[in-house]
Amino acid sequence: MKISEGKIHVNYNVVELQLDPVIRRRLEALGITEGSRIQILNKKRNGAFIIKTRGTRWAIGKQISEGIICREEKNEKGN
Amino acid sequence: MASLLIILAIGVYAGFVIKRQISNWKKGKYCGSNCDGCSGGCHKDLNK
Amino acid sequence: MKKEIKVGFLGNPNCGKTTLFNAFTGAKLKVANWPGVTVEKKEGEAKYKDWTIKLIDLPGIYSLSSYSIEEKVSRNCILNDEVDVIINVVDAAALERNLYLTLQLLELGKPVVMALNMMDIIEERGMEIDLHRMPEVLGNIPVVPVSARKRTGLDVLLHAVVHHYQEESEEYSLKYSQEIENEISKIKSKLVKFHEDIVNPRWHAIKLLEGDEEVKEKYADILKNDSIIDYEKKIINEKYNYIEDMIQEVLFNKESKSAFTDKVDEVLTHKIWGIPIFLGIMGIVFFLTFFIGDLLKGRVEILIGWFSDFINNYLISIGAANWLKSMIVDGIIAGVGGILTFLPNIFILFLALALLEDSGYMARVAYIMDGIMGKAGLSGKAFLPMVLGFGCSVPAVMATRSLENERDRKKTILLTPFMSCSAKLPIYILFANMFFKEHAMLVAFSLYVWGVVIAVILALIIGKVDKIKNSNTLLIELPEYKQPNVRTIGIYVWNKIEDYLTKAGTTIFIASIIMWFILNFNMNGMTEDVTSSFGAMLGKGFGVILAPAGLGMWQVAVALIAGLSAKEVVVSSFYVLFGIGSVSEAAGYSQLILDLNQIGFGAVNAYSLMIFSLLYTPCIATIATIKKESNSLRYTVGVVLLQLFVAWLISVIFYQTGRILF
Questions:
Q1: What is the pLDDT of residues C344-388, one digit of tens each?
Q2: Per-residue pLDDT at C384
Q3: What is the ipTM of this complex?
Q4: Which of C111, C118, C141, C129 is nearest to C17 (CA)?
Q5: What top-level class would CATH report for the domain C4-166?
Q6: CATH number of A10's domain
Q7: E strand or H helix at C522, and its extent?
Q8: What is the CA radius of gyration of chain A?
Q9: Fewer beta carbons below 10 Å: N end or C end of chain B?
């Protein structure tokens, strides 16, 4: 699922980055790589998000949030 | 006499100011501030 | 042998690198540009025992790829030996992400010393870093905890630099998986074979495997016969896996509950309340600028008044010619002195903006405003240059460089001058105080609001007209909230004050003399009758166009034209025009109000004047910057004309409506 469909405070793992290569590379340099963990801290209706990955907070726009494909991280606190 | 000196002083100062402004413009420094150049984004702003 | 070491400061944006750099060099930076590019190079110097340490502050970067010019400049600087030792400034509170750059720096093969910054934040959060293990997992580089804020660890850092420089250091390298290491060996031997004097073949080999554009171009011959598989993703992943292992070894008590920042963000970036809170904060900034500023303003006015009288008497006593006395007292002192009285307000404004930026709040603003910006086809990132515009339009226009999309840049440049710059503040303060007394602050604030509103409306219109779908790719780091650093803010605000004083002593000085001249001379030489002066002729001509906006008086027209040199000149022109030598609020204003009423200028006209000042062409410095940044004379002329038109239109609307209502 796209991270734009995610819920706040749930841990997700990145599966794929379906984005323009330039943006994809920039995200990878920031540590948003396949398998890395992402958490949503804040959501806005227009698609802008605040996420936390590798200990850093990022504000991302709709285009990016719709390009990060992820799945919910299992085995955390009995989920 | 003193008047003359004053006029001279003002004239010299004004000349210096204008000269400085022109050389600044040639270098691409437009904001008139005392900096060494702002081509990378004004370095005097915290937002580097 | 000269005991000199060249040190480069490298680190992520927002890691406190520049604060640390400033701690070593003070405000005595030398700022220039890297040759041929528009990336700035900051240099300074520090001393340690009998060593001279030349410091270079390189741009904040997240990695050393060849995707951005900042990265290229930084890595070439190191590869070209312009740096002997690297100080890698690392934000201890964001270790995971910062270490990615560290690993890349280590691969460059130069001695690295890590300055572990923000250790106090780590402590506050109850986390701990094993400072013994840290150097070990990084290949035995010195790790020096520092706090740029508290100025601790600075000498230890310099000592580490000197020591590390002097000893023979092994070539450290992170070992990748066997598969990748094999590939690296293969390419490395080829590189060495065909390019004997290649520096750091291992690094180049890794870059070729990553598909690095710059390196591929340079060593295209190696690639010719084999096709090298792109290992970029794998290499990045392996680095991050290694970092995860490292973190396990060195970082303890990683917080699991919301940190202070998260709590604050929940409020400040709230879905619904985010924007109102932002407006509220701006309102407070404004209030302080007026209120505290005005308190101090009275003192400055008294000083200037005293000075003016003193000079006046002196000139009389030495029998100076009347025209000279007039030029000095009614021209220069009136114009420059008048502007200087606003210094306290300017000071408070910049202080407030600096506090907001340094605390980390400004980044949140990009997120908060992203929605609205989106409707105009821009990302929230475009809002940041606009906020800078509240200080001065020149750096704001330049800050649009952070927007990669050219159309977005041009759009933002168009809108930025509508953000009321600090030079316009004296105009609002003067006229709001004169005509709206108790409501002065509210009136002045309304101007700022109108600026933003009109900019947004314009942006929406452009958004509709410009059908091209723009990429709304907001990606901005939200740093931890922190206590603003007194020293950083001090240096920043002081620079702004210096700028203001410089402007007063140069641009406004000259403008006041010119203004005095055109008001006191006409074709027949010096004249007592100001209505027959050059200035009056000029003003009457333009006054015709401005009449529907209630600004048809020649004095007003002349002041507005003069305002092209610098917006503050509008105010100083009024002072020169109406001969107010002593500019104290009580004395000066009542006379000025009377004089203005006599030419038919009342409250509604004042508001119209303020609106016009808000919207019309920015000062020459800004126009020049726009031309430079957009590289297009056509665009620049277009912007100027559009703004003139908008200013005229809106002030006409306000004036005509105001006349009917009031």
A1: 888 888 898 888 887 888 888 888 888 777 777 777 778 888 887
A2: 80
A3: 0.89
A4: C118
A5: alpha beta
A6: 2.30.30.90
A7: strand C521-522
A8: 12
A9: N
